[in-house]
Amino acid sequence: MSYLKERILKDGVIFPNSVLKIDSFLNQQIDPKVMEEIGREFYDHFKAEGVTKILTIEASGIAPAIILASHLRVPMLFAKKAKGAPLKGDEVYETKVHSYTKGTTSRVCVSKQYLEEKDRVLIIDDFLANGEASLGLVDLVYQAGGQVVGVGICVEKSFQPGRRRLEEAGIAVYSLVRIKEINSDSQEILFEKGH
Ligand code: 5GP
Question: What pTM does this model have?
């Protein structure tokens, strides 16, 4: 069993609506051993893909994205949640992302300086649920004319439609851990076979 999975079983806390809190080792306090494993596994999977940039969204995607970027020796870029009025002119690519956990919709953007047509972008995030965050990031890459190499996810909640929506959009998804079911009543987490 992977260390990430072990930590989910040991320290994950189940909230209503199948939200899993893993603040003690990934989303607030960060366990370097989990990070090392995440970096190594993503690297093994994506090392031959000619990735030129890693793209994630603030804040929880940043830690796994930076560790992989340091293995691949490419820059890591994070999309920011925009505050206030849109910037004047056209300095940013912008899209909208609905947050599954917060129930809010944010404008997210990246500076046009950092995403280019020649980029082969790998999208990384901590969780995949309905696919909103990842699809928003795909949209930003496409606005820049770049290519999406794939999406790498630490924890996929496979009972939600994120993977299907990404695959229907022609994007390959690679997840380190795939959760089949979260049972709030029995506080049980079931994993997909082999994940
Ligand atoms: P999606 O956009 O795929 O619906 O949801 C993924 C995003 O929402 C991730 O960036 C993650 O921050 C957050 N998220 C979705 N489900 C969970 C969850 O069960 N636990 C935590 N901690 N974050 C989640």
Answer: 0.96
The answer to whether the beta carbons of residues 141 and 161 sit under 8 Å apart is no
Atom index in ligand 1 nearest the CA of residue 131 equals: 3
pLDDT digits (tens, 9 = 90+) for 145-166: 999 999 999 999 999 999 999 9
CA 103: distance to chain centroid? 18
Pocket test for ligand 1, best of 22, 26, 126, 164 (most atoms within 8 A of CB): 126
- The model's pLDDT over 168-192, given as tens digits with 9 standing for 90+, comes to 999 999 999 999 999 988 889 999 9
Helix locations, 21-146, DSSP H: 32-46, 62-72, 132-143
> Is beta strand 13-15 parallel, antiparallel or unpaired with respect to 19-21?
antiparallel
Distance (Å) from CA 180 to ligand 1 centroid: 15
Indicate the fold that domain 2-191 takes in CATH: Rossmann fold (3.40.50)
pLDDT higher at 88 or 125: 125
| Domain coordinates in residue numbering, the chain | 2-191
